[in-house]
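Working notes for the structural subgroup meeting. M.R. asked for a predicted model of this chain before we commit to crystallization trials. I am recording the input and output together here so anyone reviewing the notebook later can reproduce the run.

Input as submitted:
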Amino acid sequence: MARSVTVIPAKSRQKANKSVPQEKKLRVAAYCRVSTDQEDQLHSFEAQVEYYTKYINEHANYEMAGIYADEGISGTNTKKRQQFRKMIADCEAGKIDLVITKSISRFARNTQDCLMYSRKLKNLNIGIIFEKEHINTLDSTGELLFTILSSLAQDESRNISENCKWGIRTKFKNGELHLNTYKFLGYDKDENGKLVINEEQAATVRRIYNEFLWGMNPAQIAKGLEDEEVPGCLGQTRWYPSTVVGILKQEKHMGDALLQKTYTADFLTKRQVKNNGEITQVYVKDSHEGIIDKETWNAVQEEFERREKFMADHGLDHYSYGAECMPFSVRAFCGECGHLYTRHSWKSRGVVQWQCKNHRKDGKVNCKNAHVDNADLEKGFIKAFNKLCENRGKYIARWMEQAENGTPLEKIRAGQMMEITEKEPLKQFVPEMAQLVIQEITILGAKKYEFIFMEGSKVRVSV
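Returned structure, recorded in token form:
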């Protein structure tokens, strides 16, 4: 039997359905973005919002679904573009039928993001109209062109990033600082972009340096600032030891500047990494007025180096970073095996003792050096310090020599010893004094110790 094929012509919509409902209006949203927060760009941002509001309202088949706008945000990724993410969420919630934007570069300069979000909306039957490129993502003929132009937008962003890097590095080579003082304690910028001291913040910086050199560790300093609700550079009153360490190691506080400490490893993610020699650095001496004098700053760096060497020599992984003043912690060592003495307390019995860390190993007694009562160790310090004061004449010539010709840290330590040994002998234990002057304690027995002071003096006592 021969096959029969009949072609049925299409009917017009009016004939196919006589009761044609009124065409539903498209809910149209516009997305606007400017890539910097400069004043002229913000005017452009306001103009975009005004333009799209008028554009949508003038189309009879369009219904305003919202204007989504991000100010001063880079387009290389969407993490910080809150309005962009809100628009995508509203599309997924069925609140938007069509998105209009100025160009692909306004939508995203990241090819992956551009394609991912356009296809996500396309699967929801939501088109994106890019006015500059005359592309509607629902039109299949524009897919290849859209992919190519997305890649070009990303490459444009890469070129902008490279140009910015070149400009910043050129300024660095000329000794010009590129510093955001909004997030930097102690300085503001004048109308010419030069660093000027913020006296209120500078007082906090000087306090941190002074307290560190008078024996307080970063955790104690941070706790003191927080307890007194001293504001930081952003006005916050929460302080961390790492913040204090960063301030103590910041060379800009003495008036010098190391430029290019970090660099952008990826222009898309804006990931900043520490520069360990991959990029040329520039060191500028006396680039601006210092808050701290150079001798004080160098003394602080010496103290950090001394602590690093102390930890390396004794196999330690920390140097008494607790927020409480515990002057014997990580400073007492066994006179027999050289291991660290650690603190043990029994609050219910009111007993605090120090014991060699190597005392027992694998269930066996490994070091026979005695336990030490904390009270005896305190008495030992009082006796050693007072003996140092009594024999002050024996040490004063060396201290004066150090104060005159020593390193910055030696000068400070010698000056401190000359000052505090002039006072009355200690009658009771002062933890802050012990923390300031003790470098190391050798435990020779339950009641016999040798104290080594920060400026090098050694005193052996029995209690």
